[in-house]
Amino acid sequence: MPTTASQKAAGVIGNGAADADLSPREMRDILAESFLQIAPDARVLAIIPDKTRDDNTDVLFPFAADILSERRVAQFDALVAQGTHGPMIEAEKRTKVGWSSATAVPSLGTIFDHEWNNADELATIGELSAGNVSSLTSGLLNEPVKVNLNRRLAPGIYDTILIFSATVPHEVAGFAGGAKYLFPGVAGPDLTHATHWLGALASIENVIGRVETPTRHMIEAAADFVSAEIITLNSVVTRDDNNRLRTHALFVGDFRKAFRAAAEVSRQVHIKYTGRKYKRVVALLDEHYDELWVGGKASYKLGGIIEEGGELIIYAPHLRSISETHGRLIEKYGYAPLDRVREMVALSEELRSNLAVAAHLAHVSYAGKRDETGRVIPRYHITMASALDEETCRRVHLGYMDHRKFRREDYEHDPDTLVVERAGRDLYLVEPH
Description:
disordered N terminus, 5-stranded parallel sheet, alpha/beta, 7-stranded mixed sheet, Rossmann fold
């Protein structure tokens, strides 16, 4: 069996390690054992990642559908945890769940989109009190937060929620995965804005790559309001040089314990230590990030190894927009260090109503320093070599380079420059926390 006695006792079924490479059969066996607790007549809703996440849902989902069909569940639907991202087209949804002309997905009903800002599509299932929020966030936030999320997670609609999640370092929660696919994955505006702003206030350097963070504690407290049984599927994956997806670990079960088992493996797999900082880092942005709302991960995950006054070049000819959803606000206010963003928030009701955007402005800028006049400026300069035009880059306070003139060989042999493949996937640090 794929499980040790200690893992079963902890409410987690699974296997994996940094050097492991789980086979499809091993993963199916883990799911089959985990799903024994699902009743034959259960109504099941799967929460799945969207196209901006590279994960093994296309492998696991057909296994899950087959097992649930064998168990004769009454209903099996899926909901895309797209957060504030735009919806996938039908072909993208089918690809995400491993549904092709040669592969059926038995018992699957509807794949729903999540509309985070459509009140008719949301339900409020509780509230985190001001005192609870203050305790969870160590005083960074002190106001009550409504727990609102997709209406399909309201009481009485589904019996079991399956969360398909990839575990990687994350700028807002510390690590992605687990309950984060509920909040902000399928959350309404209240928790979406609160969690992002909380991640910014805690500072990216104190959050990314850490398991126990204020944001993680808040989203897990919010998940306790969901009345349906929650089973999380927590995977740790990478791609090799031939683009083959490798699953290092899969832990299934309680959304706290299974997530933490996967995060321990992710910490070993997805965090790289350089032993030094660099004057320049060239980020060859991963192809899954086609707008800066998600492509900002190049800055989030590389900022810790860039010298003060240095430069980050983001090479991404496929990146064509700042954000389809939030672009207008980002272009209006521009990227800036947290201290300056806090000043903008204090002066702008518009930003106070869109704290997820405010957090993004600070996260991309990463960190600040004071110049000779005492003014806070970015610690390093960001240059975009992408499909963004020069005017747009300047408007959001980023540098511009014509991506057609970018030559990788101009940087590869410079000892003060690090070139990073598939930037945005792994977190780079000088040394362990």
